[in-house]
Every structure is written in structure tokens, then in C-alpha cells.
Specification:
257 residues; alpha/beta; Spore Coat Polysaccharide Biosynthesis Protein SpsA, Chain A
Length: 257
């Protein structure tokens, strides 16, 4: 039976944790995955998230906690990825806007010769404000004109990979290589670089429609959507520039088990 590693990054998620998201995830995995591990990476939370998780894992031994300085989402995910022991790895967000049961939609494609299977939220984002819808449309339009034209949604946090593959690729992302301690919530377009590398290497990617509804009730992230959008556009340009310089053609994969 294939072991599944589920990785959830955590930064100031106290409110989401208190509404029972870990029970939702664990109940689903216990009922549907005979062999799994749940790895939570706390990215230097300043609220009570870490204390909540430490108490939780005392009663739930399938859950592991990795603690880190606040370096951002991508470096936190990398810590979890490198610790994963499953053959497949699923990345999902603590707010569970895409619920864990959507794994049922992704998993079958690993039996159809796909190594990367990603969730897609569609164009209409439930509980997105009109302003965020416009920003999302602008990002998607510009990104598709520059990179990954065949992929509609690069930013959905619900993605799955062959573990041996993602362990090799993720540490090579710019945002991981150049990680440094930061402050506040920081979103990046690391997903674009990640998927672009897969595409350059000829790795098969399957995009699958998933249920998505903004359920994030966290209060400790202080998000500035305009600033985030500008930073994400800058990162798209950086990936394009890296490609022109031939950076991604230098990446070689070791044979995967």
C-alpha cells in the first residue's frame, strides 16, 4: 500500500486550528489512507498555534510537528518535504479552503503515469471579494502570457507529487535557496517556478478541478493583497529571466525509487 505524506504549513493559524481543521484532516486520512503521516511545519507563529499543535499531537501520534524560524511558506514546506517518508506527498493549507477529501480527485492520476497532480479552483472563487477576483484574474492573465500557458491555476495550495521528485526540485527554488528570516505574512509565486521547472524537465502535470471556498478566519497574517500581487508579478519576471539565462536547463534529476 502506498504511503501518503500530508504536509501543512502553519503561520498564525490559531483561529483555524480552534475550529477543528486538524480533526477534519485526521478523520479523513484515518478512514481513507491505511498508511499516512501528517506533518505540520510551524513557520515561527507569534500566536498560540504552536502550543495548540503541541497539545494536539500528544493525543494523536500520527501527527508530527516541525518548528522553524519565520522564513516564509516555501521554506517551511521544504522542511516538511525533506522529512516526508511517503511515496506520495500532498501539500494542503491549514484553512482547508480546499478540503482534504479532494484528495480523492487527485490520487487516481498517479496510477495514470502522472508525477505531479495539482488542484484547480476555477475562475469563480467562492467568498473572494470582487477586488480579489480582479487581482486574481490579472495575475492569471499575465502569468499565462509569460509562463505555463496550459495551466489555469498555479496558486491553489492543494498539490501532490511523487515524493522522490519533489524532494529534489523544491530545494532548488529561488525562494528556498535565498530564504532569510522575515516578518509578517508573505505570499510568493513559488508555485510558478516549481511548476515551470517540472514543465522544463518534461514531467507530466495533471490539473484537476477541486472544491474551493475561502474559509480562512486567521487574524494574524495582516495581508496586503496589492503588495502581494506586485511581489508575485515580480517573481514571474524573475522566473522568466532565470529561464533566459538557462538556469533551469542545468537541473538534473537523480533516478527515483
Amino acid at each position: 500500500m502506498t504511503k501518503l505524506s500530508v504536509i501543512i504549513p502553519c503561520y498564525n493559524e490559531e483561529a483555524n486550528l480552534k475550529r477543528g481543521v486538524l480533526n477534519e484532516v485526521l478523520n479523513y486520512l484515518t478512514s481513507n489512507e491505511p498508511d499516512f503521516e501528517l506533518i505540520i511545519v510551524d513557520d515561527g507563529s507569534t500566536d498560540k498555534s504552536r502550543h495548540f499543535i503541541k497539545d494536539y499531537i500528544q493525543k494523536h501520534k500520527q501527527v508530527k510537528l516541525i518548528t522553524a524560524n519565520h522564513l516564509g511558506k516555501a521554506p517551511a514546506l521544504n522542511l516538511g518535504i525533506q522529512a516526508a517518508s511517503g511515496r506520495l506527498t500532498l501539500l494542503t493549507d491549514m484553512d482547508q479552503s480546499t478540503p482534504i477529501n479532494q484528495w480523492n480527485r487527485l490520487r487516481p492520476y498517479f496510477d495514470r503515469d502522472y508525477s505531479v497532480v495539482i488542484g484547480s479552483r476555477g475562475k469563480d472563487r467562492k467568498n473572494f471579494s470582487a477586488f480579489r477576483q480582479i487581482l486574481s484574474w490579472g495575475f492569471r492573465t499575465i502569468r499565462k502570457a509569460m509562463l505555463l500557458a496550459s495551466i489555469n491555476d498555479t496558486q491553489c495550495g492543494f498539490k501532490a507529487f511523487e515524493t522522490g521528485l519533489i524532494k529534489q526540485i523544491f530545494p532548488q527554488l529561488d525562494v528556498v535557496v535565498k530564504a532569510q528570516q522575515t516578518s509578517g505574512w508573505r505570499v510568493s509565486a513559488f508555485d510558478v517556478e516549481l511548476l515551470f521547472i517540472f514543465e522544463k524537465l518534461g514531467i507530466k502535470i495533471k490539473e484537476v478541478s477541486v472544491v474551493w471556498e475561502d474559509k480562512d478566519i486567521s487574524v494574524g497574517k495582516s495581508r496586503n493583497f496589492i503588495k502581494e500581487s506586485i511581489e508575485m508579478f515580480q517573481e514571474i519576471t524573475r522566473v522568466k529571466f532565470n529561464d533566459w539565462q538557462g538556469k533551469y536547463t542545468k537541473i538534473k534529476l537523480e533516478p527515483r525509487p
